[in-house]
């Protein structure tokens, strides 16, 4: 396989991401990603009990069908 293209791309991305000139943009992007992660975590916490209840009902219905 020819990994030269991937290596060059990796080096370019590494150089772009490690420069201090764009630190403001990366900081904003990081905060947005963190906010998305928190929203997903909160949503899963709200939905998880209901999903577990549905799984329990389906399990008992399946047991009755045998």
TrEMBL record:
Signal peptide limits: 1-23
InterPro entries linked to this entry: CecC-like (IPR000875), CecC/Srx/CECD (IPR020400)
Main location: secreted
GO biological process, one term: defense response to Gram-negative bacterium
GO annotation, cellular component aspect: extracellular space
Keyword Manganese in annotation: no
Keywords linked to the UniProt accession: Antibiotic, Antimicrobial, Immunity, Innate immunity, Secreted, Signal
Domain of life: Eukaryota
Localization of this protein: Secreted
PANTHER family the record matches: CECROPIN-A1-RELATED
Family from the record: Belongs to the cecropin family.
Name of the protein in its database record: Cecropin
Taxonomic lineage: Eukaryota, Metazoa, Ecdysozoa, Arthropoda, Hexapoda
């Amino acid at each position: 396989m020819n990994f030269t293209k991937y290596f060059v791309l990796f080096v370019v991305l590494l150089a772009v991401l490690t420069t201090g000139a764009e630190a403001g943009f990366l900081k904003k992007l990081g905060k947005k990603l963190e906010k998305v992660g928190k929203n997903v975590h909160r949503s899963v916490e709200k939905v998880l009990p209901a999903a577990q209840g549905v799984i329990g009902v389906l399990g008992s219905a399946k047991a009755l069908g045998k």
